[in-house]
Design brief:
Largest sheet: none
Shape: rod-shaped
Radius of gyration: 47 Å
Order of helices and strands: HHH
Strand content: under 5%
Number of helices: 3
Helix content: over 70%
């Protein structure tokens, strides 16, 4: 018996590779989103620490206030940019999710097709095996009958009874009514 061969196996492998590549792209987008969020948190934490240090020191010079004010504006502007980038990235993530779902559907479709074809192949193999077993059984049975007939003794009539047997058959024997 030959083994099962899915004719679209190369296509399935290609689709699986495509789906994996799309999932990797999605992961990269998630990493970028996480990096944006980390940078935003780092900047807001640095600003809060700088303000706490200025307030905690008691006396703040004009230069320090100016630097804190500039840093505060920088954090504010950068936060706006990061939020804008995050929104853009969220749209890209949603689009990429749809691409991944579509790629996974194509893989699933081919896997289901392979499963169905394999089930049909298996049923055909079982049917073929059943037919082969039935043919083998019938051949063995016929061979056993031939051997039994060849080994059986032919019927031989005992000597001297042929006349009486033929007389009986013709109705002429001793018991015949006449």
């Amino acid at each position: 018996m030959k083994r099962f061969e899915f004719r679209l196996n190369r296509v399935l492998e290609y689709r699986q590779q495509q789906a994996e590549a799309e999932r990797n792209r999605l992961q990269l987008l998630f990493h970028r989103a996480r990096a944006l969020a980390d940078e935003r948190n780092r900047l807001t934490n640095q600003l809060a620490e700088s303000r706490d240090e200025a307030i905690g020191s008691g006396t703040v010079s004009g230069a320090e206030l100016m630097a804190l004010s500039q840093f505060s504006r920088y954090v504010e502007n950068r936060t706006v940019e990061l939020d804008k980038d995050r929104r853009t990235l969220e749209k890209q993530i949603e689009q990429q999710r749809q691409v991944v779902v579509a790629a996974d559907r194509r893989v699933t479709l081919l896997e289901k097709l392979r499963t169905r074809q394999e089930a049909v192949w298996l049923a055909e193999q079982e049917k073929e095996l059943e037919t082969l077993a039935a043919d083998s059984f019938m051949a063995r049975l016929a061979a056993n009958r031939r051997n039994a007939n060849a080994n059986a003794r032919p019927f031989v009539m005992p000597r001297g009874t042929a006349d009486s047997d033929s007389a009986l058959d013709l109705g002429q024997g001793p018991d015949a009514a006449g």
